[in-house]
Design brief:
This protein is mostly helical. It has one domain. The protein is built from ten helices and two strands. α5 runs antiparallel to α10. The longest helix has 27 residues. Belongs to the 4-toluene sulfonate uptake permease (TSUP) (TC 2.A.102) family. Keywords: Cell membrane, Membrane, Transmembrane, Transmembrane helix. Its main location: membrane.
């Protein structure tokens, strides 16, 4: 039953990763939190396992999605090259910080982030294209912030990197495509960090490598790789702004559900 749930979650997350540029992690993390709780996995580490597993799945989703966007010429590789070093450093630092925090603290941080993303989408808040990309130091700093926040909430960084790129006069479609490419170093560094930091924990369930739960990774990755290119095609043919409003309402529902559990 849980394997089927992982497959369904992966299919949905893959479409979102290609379609909205927000990364499937924004759905994967709360869904895994609910599923891991239902499975009876160790309560003190449920959030850590959800975050680490989410980032590991994004490795596969981002590759599939970025290939589809690259085929349409929608990836700004100059941005990817300049921001990746900061992304990796920030992500590794964020995964270390997450390992020191309690599940409750991580859930609170994630709920706040969910509401932030939902409001951003619901009100269609976009920065005005008013500047160019910063220099090397600025790109490293921006990459560090995006990587650190992304690792703390288990996402591919699209909800942060897309607005930044639009602000720097990159078109929305190219920002979404480039975000898919940026998601790869975030996911790779984040998954490695969560694996390494979780290896010292002795009470994790079987089939875990650190804070990455392999059965969930396998089911989600398999389905998301298949559906991510479909989402990327839809991004070039559907009114994304309208779909984001519907998705924002879903995020509010999930955030409220998590919040009620904390209270």
């Amino acid at each position: 039953m849980f394997l089927l749930a992982y497959l369904a979650l992966g299919a949905f997350a893959g479409v979102l990763a290609g379609l909205l540029g927000v990364g499937g992690g924004i759905v994967i993390v709360p869904a895994l939190t609910f599923l891991f709780t239902a499975q009876g996995l160790p309560a003190p580490y449920i959030a850590h396992l959800a975050l680490g597993t989410s980032l590991a799945t994004i490795i596969f989703t981002s590759v599939s999605s970025l290939r589809a966007h690259h085929g349409r010429g929608a990836v700004e590789w100059r941005v990817v090259r300049r921001i990746s070093a900061g992304i990796v450093a920030g992500t590794l630092a964020g995964s270390w910080v997450a390992a020191q925090l309690s599940t409750r603290s991580l859930k609170v941080f994630f709920v706040v982030f969910l509401y932030y993303v939902a409001i951003q989408m619901l009100l269609n808040i976009r920065p005005k294209p008013s500047r160019q990309l910063p220099g090397t130091g600025g790109m490293l700093g921006v990459g560090g912030v995006i990587g650190a926040v992304s690792s703390l909430v288990g996402i591919g960084g699209g909800s942060l990197s897309v607005p930044f790129m639009v602000w720097c006069n990159i078109s929305m479609h190219n920002a979404i495509g480039t975000s898919a490419a940026i998601g790869f170093p975030i996911a790779l560094a984040g998954a490695a960090g969560y694996m390494a930091n979780g290896l010292v924990v002795t009470s994790l369930p079987p089939w875990s490598v650190g804070f990455v739960y392999l059965p969930a990774l396998a089911g989600i990755a398999l389905a998301s790789v298949i559906t991510a290119p479909f989402g990327a095609r839809l991004a070039h043919n559907l009114p994304v702004s309208g779909l984001k409003k519907i998705f924002a309402l879903l995020l509010i529902v999930m955030g409220t559900k998590l919040l009620s559990g904390l209270l």
